[in-house]
Amino acid sequence: MENRREFLKIAxxxxxxxxxxxxxxxxxxxxxxxxxxxxxxxxxxxxxAHATARNFLVGCAAIPQxxxxxxxxxxxxADQANILVAENxxxxxxxxxxxxRFDFHAADELLAFTQAHGQKLRGHNLCWHExxxxxxxxxxxxxxxxxxxxxxxxxxxxxxxGKIHSWDVVNEAVDTKSGRPDGLRKTxxxxxxxxxxxxxxxxxxxxxxxxxxxxxxxxxIETDSADDAAKREQVLRLxxxxxxxGVPIDAIGVQSHLSATGxxxxxxxxxxxxxxxxxxxxxxxxxxxVNEQKLEGSEQECDAIVAKIYKxxxxxxxxxxxxxxxxxxxxxxxxxxxxxxxxxxLDGRPQRCLPLDANYRPTPVFFALRDAIDTRRKAx
Length: 380
What we know:
Elements: H1 2-19, H2 26-30, H3 47-52, E1 57-62, H4 71-80, E2 83-86, H5 92-95, H6 105-116, E3 120-127, H7 136-139, H8 145-159, E4 166-171, H9 188-193, H10 196-208, E5 213-218, H11 226-245, E6 251-254, E7 257-259, H12 267-278, E8 282-291, H13 299-318, E9 323-328, H14 364-373
Parallel strand pairs: 1-2, 1-9, 2-3, 3-4, 4-5, 5-6, 6-8, 7-8, 8-9
Helix pairs in contact: 1-4, 1-6, 8-10, 11-12, 13-14
């Protein structure tokens, strides 16, 4: 373990020096000119440095398998984030190769990285209807589902007890189009255990790790569209039910997969965040990115639009004191899911939706996000 940590430290330092350039301000960069040696993004100018100065958590989803194979990636993640979340390494499919066997290799690598670089770690996730192993369908049923769920949470959350900032205990449990009066998504867990699976998951997680912030995480609750407003209201009812029943919950994760050509967040989300504050709940922006698949214009024009969305959204959220963390879903466009075959731009140009481009150079998003972080009052 110690040798691996030392290797990761050395790799990150080397990668940062070799790959991450010094660049100018957001407005200058957006104009396509990058004068050297005017702004260091890897030390005092990093997202991490600006957030830490304001007692705020900023980070990204990370792929631990790339830490040792791609030094520029490790360097970027170490430099820019004071909190990480597992992109896939802590999901059921990654952790459960067989019903009676766990594989913690990748998750342990991620924990080791965060410990070596003084970062916090979010766990994602303990209960979800997707990313479940192939054996699940033929093995888990009404008779043993409770045992499988509790054993999984006890084993996973227990292994990392005291080392995790927060756990997405339940992910995406609400679907307003399910036809159910309670708005719950039709999942195997709901089919096997009924709505009580939600309470079971949170109580089990609290017992396994008394210190982690227990989070409910969901998407499609950000904008003022009718669909998002309806789902946001249903999520609020879910959380109110938790509080009424004494279910342990500390935070709500707002995924924030935004669209450059769709409705954007506004007053509805702000009011939702404020209502959560009255309930003494923190809010995390957990999976932020901006889909520009259908956005027309030159790369420069699209960059400016995406950056503005980041700036406005992050500034709105950071104005609320109970919003205590913001994570993008990845750090570099090189590995974003938005450049996958189903979401790639129609003109074939790669999406530029994250703080660093495919070559680890800062995009206008980087500076927009940093500017938004700077709107937060500095720690005293």
